[in-house]
Amino acid sequence: MGKGFPTAQDAEAAFYEAFETGDLEAMMNVWAEDEEIVCVHPGEARLVGYEQVRRSYAEMFKDRPRPQVHLGNQVCVQGVLLAVHSVYEHILVAGETKARPPILATNVYTRTGTGWRMLMHHASADPVRRADPLVEMLKILH
Q1: DSSP state of 31
Q2: CB neighbourhood size of 66 (10 A)
Q3: Gyration radius (Cα) of the chain, Å
């Protein structure tokens, strides 16, 4: 069983460091070892459970350039056992000439007996910066 982190902010820093370096073991150490964890990558299906989340990151980390992630517009709400962070992920990839639009992410952390771990990561494209008829329809329906 992996060790948790002293604070939710420490868990978040470890999550993005693992993402930048493509370190699968470090990434999975951030996640709670629970079958109820949830991950949604931009434009992808919802993944539930430790094994699905692990497989998704293993696939993502194969043969890809190492990105840099800068967080912005952070909003954090924290209680005794739960923390919710809403962030803009600004992802920079070496060699790309055009800046990517930010990704909106919600990260949920839980305080376990060994420290803070991630329960949920939900990331999506910024609908304000993306002209998509589906997004407009969803605004009406939601």
Answers
A1: B
A2: 11
A3: 15
Angstrom distance (rounded) from CA 101 to CA 48 = 27
Distance CA 87, CA 85 (A): 6
For residue 73, how far is the Cα from the chain centroid?
15
pLDDT one-digit tens code per residue, 40-76:
999 999 999 999 999 999 999 998 888 889 999 999 9
CATH C-level class of 8-141? alpha beta
The backbone torsions φ and ψ at residue 2, rounded to the nearest 5 degrees and listed phi first, read -70, 160
The full set of domain ranges for the chain reads 8-141
Backbone torsions φ then ψ of 18, nearest 5 degrees? -65, -40
Pick the closest to residue 1 from 121, 108, 120, 117 (CA basis). 117
CA distances (Å), 129 to each of 45, 67, 126, 135, in order? Answer: 21, 21, 6, 11
